[in-house]
Amino acid sequence: MTRYAITVLEYAASPKHPTSGVLYGRHNSGSINLPFAYVLLRSSDTVALVDTGYDQSDFGGEIANSIGVTGWTPPSEVLGAVGIRPEDVQHVFLTHAHFDHMGGLDYFPNAKFYIQKREIESWVWAMTKGRRFRSLLGGINPADILKLVDLGLKNRLVVLDGASHDVLPNIDLLPAFDTHTAGSQYVVVRNGGSIEDRWVLTGDVVYTYENLHGGDRDDPCFVPPGLATGSQTNLILTAEEMLASVGGDMLRLVPVHEEKLREHFPSRVSDRGLRITDIATL
Fold first, then answer.
1. CA-CA distance, 4 to 169, in Å (whole number)?
2. Nearest CA among 106, 180, 179, 100 for reference residue 140
3. Would you give the DSSP letter of residue 27?
4. Per-10-residue mean pLDDT, the chain, length 282
5. Exposed, middle or buried, 152 (CB in 10 Å: 0-12/13-18/19+)?
6. Short-list 158, 74, 149, 146, CA closest to 111
7. Which of 103, 161, 198, 200 is the Cys-Cys partner for 60 at CB 3.0 to 4.6 Å?
8. Strand residues in 101-143 grouped as ranges (E)
9. Closest CA to 269 of 119, 19, 73
10. What pTM value is reported for the model?
11. For residues 107 and 55, is the Cβ–Cβ distance under 8 A?
12. Rounded Cα gap, residues 114 and 160, in angstroms
């Protein structure tokens, strides 16, 4: 049975990110340190990523600067810290098209990319609506959408229409429509036959563990992310769906913006001061 090592690789951070963007309704709760990361999946013969980060040299970098993201490091150095080159990446699963998740397409010249059809269509639609609707484009670099078209012409883009099971052996891509974005998806890695061997890579449907318990582990309450173009209700229902798929074990969900991953999994800091967290090993 194919198994995957799962490693969360931090590539930047927002040291004073507004809490309200992470937890809906927390408008007077100050700020938190928000890591920016992508996830490396490795088996005996496969190298894959969940999301790409962004490119500091283009409009994605301008967006990052505007929200106080610092310490950006290119994939060559981030991946190099664990012995991987960007050229080694064969597959990239895009949870959604926000700049910090899809802005690094160009860094992975040999990869095939996977995204939901609904995600592409929703952003194209939003870009046609005119300036009065520009709030719908928050977090997006329009040039990244054009890059997807070019990837399609090069036969390097897989456009999904809903759930896709075993897109690679024991990896499922499942839709989270009308949540954080219109066509978000999340990644399920099945490292064995039991529920205890299953991991869910949440994308931004879940930013932190607190989205799952609301700060009270004895009487948990779902609190969805504050940043969303979809429905807060759908965010909660999808979080419930994710939790149910792992038997309610919150630590089987992997939110890449969660600073507290290091408290639950083996973790170290690279030479660049970026955190590397091993969720599962071979």
1. 10
2. 100
3. T
4. 95 93 85 96 97 97 95 97 98 98 98 98 95 92 96 98 97 98 98 91 97 91 93 96 96 97 96 95 92
5. middle
6. 158
7. 103
8. 112-116
9. 73
10. 0.97
11. yes
12. 7
